[in-house]
Amino acid sequence: MNRLEKKAIGKPEKWLIKAAAEIHLDFSDLTHEITSYFENHCIRRHGNTKIEKARGQLPVTPADFDRIPSIVKSPDCVIIGIKRKDETFIAYSKKFEEGTVIY
């Protein structure tokens, strides 16, 4: 997969679209996706066990990307409307047995 290739994760849940609309964000046409750039960045910057352990975190592994659909479908916590430059993001977190994953 090259830098621009994307994998669709799925549409946001209806409750998320409704919550976003309450703060004047239209997520009705949104499709969650990840790019190969995102995957490579995460592994390169956050996949080293020694470095992440020193930060008090677990390293990102390729298997973590398989969890993203379940995190998006049933998160424990969501932050809607994170702004960076002219983009709006959503942050999801879900607790698993070995730790909490943030997407």
What would your notes on this structure say?
This protein has one domain. The strands form two sheets. It has a three-stranded antiparallel beta sheet, covered by helices on one side. Strands 1-2 form a two-stranded antiparallel ribbon. It contains five helices and five strands, in the order βαβααααβββ. It has helices at residues 14-22, 36-46, 49-54, 62-66, 68-73, and strands spanning 6-10, 32-35, 77-84, 87-96, 99-102. The longest helix is centred in the middle third of the chain and has 11 residues, at 36-46. The protein is globular, with a radius of gyration of 15 Å. By secondary structure, the chain is of the alpha+beta class. The mean pLDDT is 90. Helix content is 36%, strand content 30%.
Quick structural summary:
The protein has 103 residues and is of the alpha+beta class. It contains 5 helices and 5 strands; from the N terminus they run βαβααααβββ. 36% of the residues lie in helices and 30% in strands.
Structure keywords:
two-stranded antiparallel ribbon, 103 residues, alpha+beta, 3-stranded antiparallel beta sheet, globular, 5 helices, single chain
